[in-house]
Amino acid sequence: MNNYIERVLEATKEKNNEPEFNQAVAEVLKTIEPVVEKNPEFEKQALLERIVEPERIISFRVPWMDDNGKVQVNKGFRVQFNGAIGPYKGGLRFHPSVNQSIMKFLGFEQVFKNALTGLPIGGGKGGSDFDPKGKSDNEIMRFCQSFMNELQRHIGHNLDVPAGDIGVGGREIGYLFGQYRKIKNQYEAGVLTGKGLEYGGSLARKEATGFGLLYFMREMLKANNLDLKGKTVTISGSGNVAIYAAQKAVEFGAKVVAMSDSNGCIHDEQGIDLDYVKELKEVKRARIKEYLAKHPNAKYIENVKGQTPAVYTIKAEVVLPCATQNDINLETAKLLVKNGAIAIGEGANMPTSIEAINYFIENKVLLAPAKAANAGGVATSALEMSQNSMRLSWTFEEVDKKLDGIMTNIFKMCHETAKEYNLGINYVAGANIAAFKKVSSAMIAQGII
Ligand code: NDP
Ligand code: 2IT
Questions:
Q1: Range(s) of the chain covered by CATH 3.40.50.10860
Q2: Where in the chain is the domain with CATH 3.40.50.720?
Q3: The pLDDT of residue 406
Q4: Cα–Cα distance between 435 and 269 in angstroms, integer?
Q5: Mutate to test the pocket of ligand 2, among 155, 381, 410 (most ligand atoms within 8 A of CB)
Q6: How many Å lie between the centroid of ligand 2 and the Cα of residue 207?
Q7: Residue list, ligand 2 pocket, CB within 6 Å
Q8: Measured from the CB, is residue 166 less than 6 Å from ligand 1?
Q9: DSSP category for residue 395
Q10: Distance (Å, rounded) from C-alpha 249 to C-alpha 320?
């Protein structure tokens, strides 16, 4: 490996005892070797050392009162990773596993993903180790208000624009926006995205990440003389990304036979009843297991700790990890290939370990990399920001068409970059190189800051 890359990787690992962050950095740095080799000025300008160091990390206390009158305290974060291309942009994750490593890995990924969209957005991420599961609506509201009491100092439509991620959907964005508006006493619509349609949200934002993933998948399959018609699909997760990925997969003629949550998966050979999954997850906030109440002939398979998540034991040609990071390790990758997988579409951020990515590529399985394939969500967030600035709103069809165009273009970039560097079907490297080129030129142009 290139000396400079190796040194930066070593130093990053030594300085940061953060496994997820180091994994995300290694995945990018190991693939950009040909670009670094060609640009000796990167080393003189400490470009790599700068690109792996967030511009700013804010961490804060979030106290709130639960329904029993007990005071609870959580950690809050916002990582403003890189603002070279535009205001920091990226979601908020509320999940008990959230820590600085996870925030930094997500922020780092976001920088490159946002660059691929071609829209003027830098990269950031935030969240809390707050667990929304089992909380009442009032508890969610009080938590969001307390979180925003601090976050409001650090965000703004030209500074940093948060949105949703795991555990943060329309309800949470509503409470966060309300508290921001009350504190600032101004209607600054573009400070958050993923808003409700009544108060500045964009049509098709809710669907965008899942739809975008399938637009990318369609293009990737087409470039390899394949398509989705008649293919069997399994999806890890049953949240925002998973649901709309499933919807578009069915529209494209595929059959979705399994979806999951962190407890286990449902397997319905007839094809998943998506309207019912939406009702369970978007309205009732129930566990996926409850699918059996209406579909007793479907199977529910519980996850076993330390073993392959149940959803990946089901045979499928197209597999869409849309839950969380490191969902697919090498062992799972081997099982998926053995069971006939031809394509993997990463709806989640970093769902596949580096060893598993390499195994897929070596075995000629097409892999749509997260940074590129799930960029439809943030791209549509940027379209929401445009509409807010113009004080206009586009129709669903207009936004969806722009989203399709953006995803098609992102695939083209990954494909052409892979071709240019003789990388075959390694779209992971294609995406990383294309994104890195853009971020690095913007940083170089702006001097040593
Ligand atoms: P949601 O909160 O709507 O859904 C998350 C889903 O993933 C749930 O089914 C959840 O199950 C499951 N899940 C979460 N954590 C774990 C875990 N540790 N182990 C197993 N399953 C888990 O989130 P989203 O759909 O918005 O996000 C899903 C993924 O997509 C994340 O990786 C996110 O970063 C990524 N993403 C999201 C975008 C967006 O616009 N929302 C854009 C781009 C990427 P359970 O209910 O049991 O926790
Ligand atoms: O990971 C992601 O790209 C998101 N959670 C969406 C971010 C956004 O600002 O819409």
A1: 53-203
A2: 206-368
A3: 99
A4: 39
A5: 381
A6: 12
A7: 89-91, 110, 113, 163, 165, 193, 349, 377-378, 381
A8: yes
A9: -
A10: 10
Q: What confidence tens digit (pLDDT) does each residue in 390-446 have?
A: 999 999 999 999 999 999 999 999 999 999 999 999 999 999 999 999 999 999 999
Residue 330 CB partners (closer than 8 Å, separation 6+): 353, 355, 356, 359
Nearest to 116 by CA among 373, 359, 300: 373
Mean pLDDT of 377-402: 98
Mean confidence (pLDDT) of the chain: 98
CB 410 within 8 A of CB 116: yes
In angstroms, the CA 241 to CA 102 distance is: 19
Statement: 206-368 belongs to CATH 3.40.1190.10: no
CA dist 133 and 375 (Å) reads 27
Please give the CATH number for the structural domain made up of 53-203. 3.40.50.10860
C-alpha distance from residue 365 to each of 15, 243, 327, 361, 409 (Å): 35, 24, 17, 6, 22
352 lines ligand 1 (CB under 6 A): no
Q: Which class for 38: exposed (0-12), middle (13-18), buried (19 or more C-beta within 10 A)?
A: exposed
Count how many residues are written for the chain. Answer: 449
* Helices and strands of the chain, counted as H and E runs: 17, 12
Contacts of 216 (CB under 8 A, 6+ apart): 345, 368, 372, 373, 376, 407, 410, 411
Burial class (CB in 10 A: 0-12, 13-18, 19+), 149: middle
What are the tens digits of pLDDT across the range 115-160?
Answer: 999 999 999 999 999 999 999 999 999 999 999 999 999 999 999 9
Structure tokens given for 341: 């997988």
DSSP annotation of 292: G
